[in-house]
Design goal:
480 residues; globular; alpha+beta; six-stranded mixed sheet; Penicillin-binding protein 2a (Domain 2); Beta-lactamase; single chain; six-stranded antiparallel sheet
Length: 480
């Protein structure tokens, strides 16, 4: 073979190697990046050819299914019952508006993509890929009661099993009909609506927590060893906190009172002083233990969850509590620039109820294949111990007093002892616009359910009057 031919042959080999290398690079190394690119519709078309698994409620009620269209592609359908769970379940219209909620976070299971190798083998062998079914922990009856109690007002309710983290209720109002989103114009219109019905207030809305935050402050105080339920603090009003006067509700005066009395009567000046004595570092430590400062460990899309904490409201960024810009006294009573989600505050209540151990919240109960076999069971998973069992028991007693004789009496259940805490964040004092709250759990001795309830911008409303009765209705259903 002469030299020119050898050179040509070598060039061909080099070009072939380069082609093979680039092909491998694009199809393997860059594959995930290309699949994630919003402009690349090929993965979406491929998934639309797969019969997606169904989603069911705790009682087996159908919440989402797929039907085949005339073009051979599958389209998602949502029965009437799904509208109750629109935010938790979300939607899947990948070719037009994308996915949200559980449809997005459990997409791999629903689309039958158990792992990359199995999916490739199924495609090459010509086997029809079928998605697995997702069974949730969501309770239709309790969800309906929650939505009815919210009565169309903007707000949210989250109910969790303390020992397992199972999310039994996730209600956000106003809601929407997921079936209507088949029309992209409807999606655009709802996105522009001032009430933001596509917005999941349970996981995305950052609200001022008001006095419900005193539960976190009390947990840090008791567990630090610096305070006991009998420790006394002067409750006079006003006092100066960070150079600014702070008053109790209605400027009510208290003498030297135990922390139990201070929680029962929600005495601002006492808890602000407690937070100041605990200091920024200790308050930050316990808030982080409760889950503040990071996305909740929920099987839900990260982009649809807001971390709770103190925010720079202009930059929409979290501020570390050890920053001198933070008024730790007011953080301790749920003021300052503290923003929390209803999910976060439900986790706070559930952690106290669970003896001080925070569990990871879960919407999904199990993944089931088309033959009814359980492919994966979502077992309870511990996040961390937040406080000692002794501190949790002391705090439970204090929260029980709130419901028995304090600001939370409207949450009381006949024959069942409830522990809880009310909150009323004053958003506009002149116009009397408030953010009412209630968090709590029941039964006190062996808690089965923890709950957080809040409503947006309610004129003249207090947590004990508006939110506590709603919590009672939902808890009553879940404890049946």
């Amino acid at each position: 073979m002469n030299a020119p031919i050898l050179k040509l042959f070598g060039l061909v080999l080099v070009l072939f190697a380069a082609l093979a290398g680039m092909t491998s690079y694009n199809s393997v190394i860059k594959a995930e990046e290309y699949r994630a690119n919003a402009l690349n519709k090929r993965p979406l078309i491929e998934q639309a050819q797969v019969k997606r698994g169904v989603i069911r409620a705790r009682d087996g009620s159908l919440l989402a299914r797929s039907v085949k269209g005339e073009d051979g592609l599958y389209v998602r359908r949502y029965p009437e019952a799904a509208e109750r769970f629109s935010h938790a379940i979300g939607y899947d219209f990948g070719l037009t508006i994308g996915r949200a909620g559980l449809e997005r976070s459990r997409n791999d299971a629903l689309a039958g993509e158990t792992d990359e190798i199995s999916s490739i083998v199924a495609d090459l062998s010509g086997r029809r890929r079928i998605g697995d079914n997702v069974i949730t922990n969501l309770d239709p009856r309790a969800q309906q009661i929650a939505l009815k109690a919210l009565a169309g007002r903007r707000g949210a309710i989250v109910a969790i099993e303390p020992a397992t983290g199972k999310v039994r209720v996730m209600a956000s109002t106003p809601g929407y009909d997921p079936s209507a989103l088949r029309d992209p114009q409807v999606f655009k219109r709802l996105n522009r609506t001032t009430n933001s019905p596509l917005f999941n207030r349970a996981t995305q809305a950052g609200y001022a927590p008001g006095s419900t935050m005193k539960v976190v402050t009390a947990a840090a105080a008791l567990d630090s060893g610096l305070f006991t339920p009998q420790s006394t603090v002067l409750g006079r009003s006003p006092i100066v906190v960070s150079g600014v006067p702070l008053k109790n509700f209605s400027n009510k005066q208290f003498g030297a009172i135990p922390l139990t009395t201070a929680l029962t009567n929600s005495v601002n000046t006492v808890w602000a002083q407690v937070a100041q004595k605990l200091g920024r570092e200790r308050m930050q430590e316990y808030m982080q233990r409760f889950g503040f400062g990071s996305d909740p460990a929920l099987d839900y899309p990260d982009g649809q969850m807001l971390p709770s904490g103190v925010y720079d409201l202009k930059k929409e960024q979290l501020i570390p509590l050890d920053s001198r810009r933070v008024d730790i006294g007011r953080v301790g009573i749920g003021q300052e620039r503290l923003r929390v989600t209803p999910l976060q505050m439900a986790v706070v209540a559930a952690t106290v109820a669970n003896g001080g151990v925070r569990m990871k919240p879960r919407i999904t109960s199990r993944i089931v294949d088309q033959d009814g076999r359980t492919v994966r069971r979502i077992e309870p998973e511990r996040a961390e111990r937040v406080m000692s069992a002794r501190s949790a028991a002391q705090l439970t007693q204090m929260m029980s007093d709130v419901v028995r004789e304090g600001t939370g009496t409207a949450a009381a259940l006949e024959g069942i002892e409830v522990a809880g805490k009310t909150g009323t964040a004053e958003l506009n004092i002149e116009r009397r616009i408030n953010q009412p709250w209630f968090i709590g759990f029941a039964p006190r001795a062996k808690p089965k359910i923890a709950i957080a309830v809040t409503l947006e911008n309610i004129v003249g409303a207090q947590g004990g009057v508006v939110a506590a009765p709603i919590a009672r209705q939902v808890m009553q259903e879940l404890l049946r």
